[in-house]
Design brief:
Number of domains: 3
Largest sheet: 6 strands, mixed
Radius of gyration: 21 Å
Number of helices: 8
CATH architecture of the largest domain: 3-Layer(aba) Sandwich
Structural class: alpha/beta
Number of strands: 13
Distance between the termini: 30 Å
Order of helices and strands: EEEHEEHHHEHEHEEHEEEEH
CATH topology of the largest domain: Rossmann fold
Strand content: 25-35%
Shape: globular
Length: about 280
């Protein structure tokens, strides 16, 4: 994996006097996939727009490659509904000056990778949501960018298309592209090399998913009834709770925490104490 100096260095962004991003740093390296996770209003979109140069930083530094070395997949996929799959791909390639034999080589490779070679003459507006996202990703990759930025690429698509989309992302990283994606899914963030969890514009947790879970302090338990503690949350049909010490109640069954537990506990501890866990 090759290091770069791309990313954000202590970046803050304010809109109309309101802080949207506060002192956020994030490193992007060639060959790695970085996930930025968080709920609505957490600062994900502001971070992405700041990295792309669409909003100015109030303080800190933003480093990115030249514009023609960046590929971008918006949440809307960016696919033109009145153009065919091949026409969409050719249009995106032409915008970056990829033509002739170089375009045909990139087109054939990306259509095969994305499983769209058999629907190359289908209109973009007639594609399923998963196909549309895969085409949008192919359009973002057609000029072989060094930095690929994706805005919640798997939201609303079926599990099979989501898996295929991840295959494309993994291949892009193996091709020495730095990948940054935003997501609301913590299970998806857990597949990234590095995850940055935002909460109210600040970094709640950051690091490799295994390290975040491995560095978890305290214990997590599971019970069928709602516990009388501020450190409890619904998980499926049961309740989970956190404590620094072992649970004394036999009604609480200890469980092995995962990334979702680590993020929820960090958020609850921050809200309870006013200090990040």
């Amino acid at each position: 994996m090759t290091d770069t100096n791309w990313g954000l260095d202590r970046v803050s962004v304010a809109y109309d006097g309101k802080q949207a991003l506060a002192d956020v740093s994030l490193a992007l390296n060639l060959g790695s996939v970085v996930g930025v996770a968080g709920g609505d209003g957490s600062g994900k979109t502001t971070l992405l727009r700041s990295l792309l140069g669409l909003v100015p930083a109030s303080s800190g530094a933003v480093n990115r490659p030249d514009g023609d070395e960046v590929g971008y997949l918006p949440a809307s996929s960016g696919v033109y509904p009145d153009l065919t799959v091949e026409e969409n791909l050719r249009f995106a390639a032409g915008a970056y000056g990829v033509r002739g034999g170089n375009y045909r080589m990139a087109r054939d490779e990306l259509l095969e990778r994305s499983g769209l070679e058999d629907v190359s003459d289908r209109l973009g507006g007639n594609l399923s949501g998963g196909m549309r996202q895969k085409l949008g990703l192919a359009m973002a990759l057609v000029h072989r960018p060094r930095l690929l930025v994706l805005d919640e690429p798997s939201t609303g698509i079926d599990p099979v298309s989501r898996r295929e989309l991840w295959g494309l992302l993994s291949e892009a990283a193996r091709d020495e592209t730095a990948v940054l994606m935003t997501t609301t899914y913590l299970d998806e963030a857990g597949r990234c090399d590095t995850v940055c969890v935002l909460d109210d514009g600040t970094v709640l947790l950051q690091g490799a998913p295994d390290e975040l879970v491995g560095g978890f302090s305290g214990v997590v338990g599971e019970t069928t009834s709602r516990p009388d503690t501020p450190f409890a949350w619904r998980r499926g049909a049961s309740w989970r709770l956190w404590s620094l010490d072992e649970f004394e109640s036999p009604a609480v069954r200890p469980v092995t925490p995962d990334l979702q537990d680590a993020v929820i506990v960090a958020a609850l501890r921050r809200r309870e104490s006013g200090v990040a866990a």
